[in-house]
């Protein structure tokens, strides 16, 4: 059963939260403040009667169903779920099983004068799915019953999925036929293929498989005026690509009812390896050159010194970490060391060849290879790469908050931007007498530049109101730092409501008008997720 007020599902294997981790947090940001958590029963008792008068066979007005579809995974969502102060709930939740039923529900919404929120995996971290009970009643349309592999054209290597298919079901259904999509965002366990397209998602192994824009081949978009079919053509010069209009649209133009994606044969061999560099200059140079030389890596993640230290303290495998620390110190890398994890995927011969090329580059930048130990660390990372979000709940129970932000910039701006963003976050609560611990890594690399993925920790406030106010201060400081650096306001999480105020800095006045014109065209009554992507008009 999926947790109603945190990340993941009951019974899932979780990282171990150690005494070392607790001591590190106390030393770094102070003694945690533990708060009581609201119960599901308490929250369900707050749900007011639905404002939707008419009934529909696909629509549920049950209180618990409405609670479970009211929030995502953003920090304000967590504060709401833990405190029990939700504020708003959808008036009803619909569970269609076919594109035709989605169309039927959209007709119902127009007839009953409702706003509509598409709901995929409920993993949004920027406020995509939160209802606002001001104005029209809200109908949330969940894709959780549309999870099948509908077709696999093996000759063309194009697969067609229901939009609510979560990552594990995508890969399980493809793997049974000998294929993979290879799209692995950290939200892989719960996020859906339709949500990946709607939010322009990026997977951890995008160096090999591509971001979702390279994988999205076509599909269907349900609008209030009919179905927009997006043909799965390999390439076209016939005007602007309609796929680009759907990618990143976040539900503003219509509801994705079918997704066609480009798949590949399952790889024969795959390995992940950890290596350490003496400082950030070496780690950065290695990451940039490996990428721009187009070495056949499937992923590369480079942590700065602050993050590397935090990872060592928060990791669950203390014996292995102590062994690694000793070995690395003997090899001359100690304070300020930076960990890089890279993956190689493909045929056995390709993996061996790439590993040889990477090894020469590691030697060039004085990297500390771990040999068998490095591969062991890589296996631990691979096994636990979708489990890190579970730590958020353990941290909260211990009295601490954690959140992330990300952007991407050109290589020439990467180092100064990382420093500026970390400094803005770390100093955001200085006037409150609170310390924020911020650290970063490059999560995705490109020939032109890189993403910057920053994590920050702080202790909870005296109450939930103070905690949320502190987060807003950090979020504003971080977002303005991103804008001043010329970075994108979102590299992979989408815009939602939280980032919408900053989108004009990136798109410009004319660009925002163009997006608003598209929204007005497909949704003249502005029923679809008002305030998401584009700020709500007065």
TrEMBL record:
Residues 86-266 form the FAD-binding PCMH-type domain. Keywords: FAD, Flavoprotein. Pfam families: FAD-oxidase_C (PF02913), FAD_binding_4 (PF01565). The keyword Transmembrane does not apply. It comes from the Bacteria. PROSITE patterns: FAD_PCMH. Belongs to the FAD-binding oxidoreductase/transferase type 4 family. PANTHER family: ALKYLDIHYDROXYACETONEPHOSPHATE SYNTHASE, PEROXISOMAL. This is FAD-binding oxidoreductase.
């Amino acid at each position: 059963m999926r947790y109603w007020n945190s990340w993941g599902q009951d019974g899932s294997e979780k990282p171990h939260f150690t005494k070392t981790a607790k001591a590190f947090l106390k030393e770094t940001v102070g003694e945690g403040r533990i708060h009581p958590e609201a119960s599901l029963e308490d929250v369900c008792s707050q749900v007011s009667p639905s404002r939707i008068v008419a009934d529909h066979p696909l629509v549920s007005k049950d209180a618990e169903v409405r609670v479970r579809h009211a929030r995502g995974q953003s920090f304000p969502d967590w504060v709401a779920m833990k405190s029990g102060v939700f504020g708003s709930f959808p008036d009803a939740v619909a569970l269609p099983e076919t594109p035709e039923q989605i169309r039927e529900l959209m007709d119902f919404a127009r007839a009953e004068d409702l706003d509509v929120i598409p709901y995929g995996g409920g993993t949004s971290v920027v406020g995509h799915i939160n209802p606002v009970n001001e104005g029209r009643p809200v109908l949330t349309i969940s894709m959780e019953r549309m999870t099948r592999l509908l077709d696999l054209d093996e000759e063309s290597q194009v697969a067609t999925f229901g939009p609510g298919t979560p990552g594990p079901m995508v890969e399980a259904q493809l793997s049974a036929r000998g294929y993979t999509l290879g799209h692995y965002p950290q939200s892989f366990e719960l996020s859906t293929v339709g949500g990946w397209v709607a939010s322009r998602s990026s997977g951890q192994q995008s160096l090999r498989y591509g971001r979702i824009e390279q994988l999205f081949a076509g599909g269907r978009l349900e609008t209030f005026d009919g179905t927009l079919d997006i043909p799965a053509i390999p390439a076209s010069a016939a005007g602007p690509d309609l796929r680009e209009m759907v990618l990143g649209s976040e539900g503003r133009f219509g509801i994705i009812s079918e997704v066609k994606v480009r798949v590949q044969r399952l790889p024969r061999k795959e390995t992940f390896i950890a290596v350490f560099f003496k400082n950030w200059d070496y780690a950065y140079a290695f990451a940039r050159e490996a990428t721009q030389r187009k070495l056949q890596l499937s992923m590369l993640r480079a942590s700065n010194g602050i993050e590397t230290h935090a990872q060592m303290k928060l990791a669950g495998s203390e014996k292995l970490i102590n062994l690694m620390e000793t070995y690395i110190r003997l090899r001359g890398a100690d304070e300020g060391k930076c960990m890089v994890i890279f993956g190689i995927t493909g045929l056995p011969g390709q993996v061996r060849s790439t590993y040889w090329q990477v090894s020469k580059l590691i030697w060039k930048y004085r990297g500390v290879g771990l040999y068998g130990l490095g591969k062991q660390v890589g296996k631990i990372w691979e096994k636990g790469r979708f489990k890190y979000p579970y730590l958020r709940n353990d941290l909260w129970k211990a009295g601490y908050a954690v959140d992330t932000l990300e952007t991407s910039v050109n290589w020439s701006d990467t180092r100064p931007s990382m420093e500026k963003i970390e400094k803005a976050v770390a100093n955001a609560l200085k006037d409150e007498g609170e310390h924020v611990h911020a650290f970063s890594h490059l999560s995705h690399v490109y020939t032109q530049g890189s993403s910057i993925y920053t994590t920050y920790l702080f202790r909870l406030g005296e109450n939930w109101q103070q905690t949320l106010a502190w987060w807003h201060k950090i979020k504003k400081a971080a977002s303005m730092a991103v804008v001043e650096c010329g970075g994108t306001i979102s590299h992979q999480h989408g815009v939602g409501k939280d980032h919408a105020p900053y989108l004009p800095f990136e798109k410009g006045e004319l660009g925002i008008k163009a997006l608003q014109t598209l929204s007005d065209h497909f949704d003249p009554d502005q029923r679809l997720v008002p305030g998401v992507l584009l700020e709500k008009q007065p």
